[in-house]
Design a protein that fits this description.
Number of strands: 7
Number of helices: 2
Oligomer: single chain
Largest sheet: 5 strands, antiparallel
Helix content: under 10%
Structural class: mainly beta
Strand content: 25-35%
Radius of gyration: 22 Å
Length: 131
């Protein structure tokens, strides 16, 4: 395996004084460039110390993500996580990503609702209760 070292790229030169940007020995700076497919907003979810509605029952947790757009003021279901079984401290592998073309603004509200799924055999959260 070979590791190649590159000098400052053209994008990085905009952030450095000219003498530093043209010096190939000074390669400690990294250029950051936004790609067209980079998400506008992305986050992961985890819960801590959830309480089961019934004592000694293991939780099967799911988080539903909804969006309230400022112009519409209506709740729109956006996505949901996978079900994490048997823990009070679930860490979800399914993150939430809003692509760059999605209309999200500073005033946009994101609602996260945590459910305890009682019947996993259905593709719905109707047989679930909020935690």
């Amino acid at each position: 395996m070979e590791i190649k070292e590159e000098g400052a790229s053209e994008e990085g030169q905009h952030f450095l004084p000219t003498a530093q940007a043209n010096d190939p020995r000074d390669s400690q700076f990294t250029s950051i460039q936004k790609t067209p497919n980079e998400p506008q907003l992305e986050f992961i979810l985890a819960c801590k110390d959830l309480v089961a509605p019934v004592r000694d029952r293991k939780l099967n947790t799911l988080v539903q993500i909804s969006v309230i757009h400022p112009a519409e003021q209506s709740l729109t279901r956006y996505s949901s996580t996978e079900i994490v079984e048997g823990t009070r401290d679930p860490l979800f592998l399914t993150g939430v990503t809003f692509p760059s073309e999605y209309p999200i603004y500073e005033e946009t509200k994101i609602k996260l609702t945590v459910y305890d799924v009682k019947d996993k055999s259905h593709d719905t959260i109707a047989n679930s209760s909020r935690i």
